Known about the structure:
By secondary structure, the protein is mainly alpha-helical. It has helices spanning 2-19, 44-50, 52-91, 98-152, 175-185, 189-208, and strands spanning 39-43, 156-160.
Amino acid sequence: MKKYILSALTIALMASCNNQGSKMDEQPVATGSGEGMKIAYVEVDSLMTQYDFAKDYSVTLQKKSNNARNTLTQKGNALQAAVNNFQQKLNNNGFQSREQAASVQAAIERQQRDLQELQARLENELASETAKFNEALRDSLQNFLKLYNKDKHFDLILSKAGDNILLAEKRYDITMDVINGLNKHYKPAAKTAATEEKAADDKKAEEKK
């Protein structure tokens, strides 16, 4: 599940960066100044490992994945134990009647269906949470790049992941600028909640004076 999460996040991030340059054909290339088109790129791997929001959410998703795996493992072991016990009784004529054996078998089948339904539900929940993160990541990156580009005036900002860009001069790399800017604006939910709670407590204390 971890590999699936990281690959989904990388794809979302690449789409976000590349969307900034989706109107390349509409941008005229500057010729009068001799500077030409201004291009920059962002290293996806560095962004994923150094952007605090991405790191925090990756931990959250991994915890959810681990919890789901542990739950399914426990219930799977319980189901296997029930199957083994049923088979052992069946082989040793441990049931008092065919009806009793059929009842136990039906209960095991229900247990198996419940496990399959649980697995599907947990996978859907994880996929939904991953999609939610992808959307939040795209939004935060796009909003920051809009502000960032007001001063920089880049015509095109690319995402660099693996070999999708075969060669790029280091002077076009704005990764650390973007990471530092994103982290500066990022406010973790836990810290925000604590700050709001402290402000509320201070307000109550002030009102009592």
